[in-house]
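Residues determine shape. We examine one folded chain.
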Amino acid sequence: MADPGQYSDSLRVIGQFLDDHGGSDIEIIDHGIYYAVSWQPEDAIRHRSCRAFELRELMAEARRHRTVWADPERLGITLGETLCALGAECDHSGVELLTVRQTEDGFRVTVFSGRVHSTCIFSDSDVVMLMEEQQARLQDCPTLVLAGV
């Protein structure tokens, strides 16, 4: 669905959707032309496939409402923030994301790089460390100054 280097935005949008719908015990599978997203709400298991055009609509809505979702008063880490961090790590590493599954211990992420499948478990504290590292990388980036602006 997303090309390597574009997972952060795609997963953030899916995570925000899941935050808004009370999702937990999530699983996201990239089938190439669409994501299959499963989650456990409070009352029953739900499943939804997200086609490319739906994801584009969700991403456009996310851009329009980004300030609402970036509310600093929110406590804890949302699924949107968590999935964004995991996607950004895939983007930074240049790997192809295959699946993300929420487990009791955190998140199990399976990726493909070269000809090798790898699976990593990220605990909640690992995700916080990823977010801190990603923030540090962003702060280390030189700022572009445009003449005459």
User: Anything to note?
Assistant: Residues 97 and 105 are 20 Å apart (CA to CA).
